[in-house]
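Exercise: predict the structure of this protein bound to manganese (II) ion.
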Amino acid sequence: MTLKISFQTPSPQKFLCLGVYEGNHLPEPTETWNRTLNKRLTEAIENSKFKGQIGQVLPIVFEKGHKIVLIGLGKKEEQNEKQWQKIGGALVSVLESSPTGEGAVEIHGIKKGDNADVVANIALGAFLKSWRFEKYFTKKKPEDLFSIKKITFLTPDPKAAERAFTPLSHTAEGVFLTRTIITEPPNVITPETLSKVAETLKKDGVQVEVLTEKELKKLGMNAILGVGQGSIHESKLVVMRWDGGKKKEAPLALIGKGVTFDTGGISIKPASNMEEMKYDMAGAGIVMGVMKSLALRKAKVNVVGVTPLVENMPSGSAQRPGDVVKSLSGQTIEILNTDAEGRLILADALWYAQDRFKPKLMIDLATLTGAIIVSLGTERAGLFSSDEALAKKLFEAGEAVGELVWRQPLDDVYDKDINSDIADVKNVTSGRGAGAITAAKFLQRFTNNVPWAHFDIAGVTWTQKDLSLCVKGATAFGVRLLDRFIKENYEEE
Ligand code: BES
Ligand code: MN
Ligand code: ZN
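Solution:
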């Protein structure tokens, strides 16, 4: 069940989180409560260390079950949208102590005409942080599950706050779709079922086509087919289109790696932590989430999403190290390691996207290499781009939403490392260094010089600890970044 978020004018509440800016004089009478309560509030503050510093919390209980929790907001002048969202995220754990599952939030001293963005972004932070995946628990007691059902934001201008929140909530719905896809177990999310999930976007107005193995074969997408040939599940290629822009205007193309489980294939991975490879379809999940968000927002832009979906399994029919396949581009690929499968399926998907749609630019997302985790850890994703302006826009969108990236090099000298002895290109290098870069160089050979960017999201897709806007698990890193990138740079007003 999703959390209900609503906006209304201030009124007395049983459970209220009151956001207080640092240095504000709190005891000013407000409309929300009477002078007696105000006096008690003042006393409680005077008898505490509460100063409104960011992250400070002061719970105050009044008789008859009324509870006010003061939340420090920090200095008013130092705030920005990321801070507001963080505050919203922090509110979730406070509201969880509400016995009814409902609570209200008010910012002390906020006036009509104050930026509605403040309230809307706090609401967004709370909404994002409240996402849970609890469907497979059958024995937990209700009190051990996530309990918040409704948050009411009290603001002098609820209409304005609502107007500001609606598009943000649409982006959040995209994030939730992506997190769900990533979190579902690999026996549930297979290429077939993931293509069915994509088809649910039709109800939002996205056009969805699902190409079957037969069609992939006919087209010549042998790089995709090779990876999937060891699995009992049929490989698919999903093509999604959101045509909200001008007719005939070239689309932006988003391409996402969709390996629903990556065992490594015949070059099999070690057993420890292999279960994590259920999230190897995050790139595809992100593209689906962005398409959903664009459709819900009715974004005035043309975007096409292309997601190759496969399961990488070892079996009697699996691809071998040493195999040579002819990709859709015509280039032949020598497969030296069946665990470097993401680049293989993306090779065909990238070529297909540029060949069929003649896009303005292509952006791919992939949990592509362990090497990017060695390089950047779990804080920033790797960004590779053949285009300076594109790289800059993507970097800035990431900074704006707090999904941070760091650009990596694509110098030509790295390219020769993937020349094969018997084919045009090989899927791994013999040296040990620069694994994320050589993977990106491999992809670049299939972009046909269309302006292109690649995100290696192996380190940022799954978090082992709670983050400010996301509990432990799938982050959907990339959805908000791309949504912002598109909104800032390509949507008509
Ligand atoms: N899906 C993995 C990369 C990965 C690793 C994602 C850890 C998330 C967390 C990818 O398919 C892979 O196996 N890459 C290999 C490439 C190597 C064989 C050249 C790797 O990084 O080890
Ligand atoms: Mn792999
Ligand atoms: Zn993989």
